[in-house]
Amino acid sequence: MPSSLRKPRWAREPVVPGARSVAPGCAVCRTGVRTLTRKSAARAVRLGTGTLGSSGRHSSPCQSRNFPNCRFPSKLWPMPTTIRLARRNELQTLVSLFGSYLTFYGKTVDVPKCTRFLGERLTAADSVIFVAEVDSAAEIDGALAGFAQLYPSWSSLSQRRNWILNDLYVDPHFRRQGVARKLIETCTAHSEKTGAKGLTLQTATDNLEAQALYRSLGWSRDEQFLTYYLEH
Hints:
The protein is an alpha+beta fold and about 230 residues long. It folds into two domains: about 1-75, no CATH class; about 80-200, Gcn5-related N-acetyltransferase (GNAT) (Aminopeptidase, 3-Layer(aba) Sandwich). About 30% of the residues lie in helices and about 20% in strands. It has six helices and seven strands. The protein has helices spanning about 10, 40-45, 90-105, 110-125, 180-195, 210-215; strands spanning about 50, 60, 80-85, 130-135, 145-155, 160-170, 200. A hairpin with a 4-residue loop joins strand 5 (about 145-155) and strand 6 (about 160-170). Helix 3 packs across helix 4 (about 110-125). The longest helix has 15 residues, at about 180-195. The protein is globular, with a radius of gyration of 22 Å.
């Protein structure tokens, strides 16, 4: 390579403070060994090799357009997200996220079956699926950080609609950034907009973190009724 086209040493082997060793591909966070100075950080930003916030850490992902193989720890940058309804033309992206959701619960992932199932839901509109889309400001616009799926139900005692928050999942790379909270708040707004009595959900008895989130959003645990299942 001609010397005029070679990257300077700092661009070939630079890192950011606090980073772990990661896969090659990013000119900013490839090794995670030495400290990236403020001067070289500003230089990296100018050359488009990463975006650093005031703390010296990434404020947007460097695995964006230029470095698709980067696996920089996502906890080092906030990911702005927008909650919206899922679209039929992003079925495959949604299936990938749905597969991770099933894996989280120890289920076998059958991709054709998942594709058919979600495709039917989107086509028939017999459920409501909200997705958290990473905003374009993060330079990986179109990526889905999480999703929530509502199933309609009815309450005979109140003669009103009820919504079941059946699925809620956030990709591990986007957790602890308020994505789950935003998804639940959107589901709550949808329930109110449709004149429903409320929402119900189930969570594992040992999922204390999720339970704390639900309580902080005004949810209360049912102490009056027990839930029974009959599987076929």
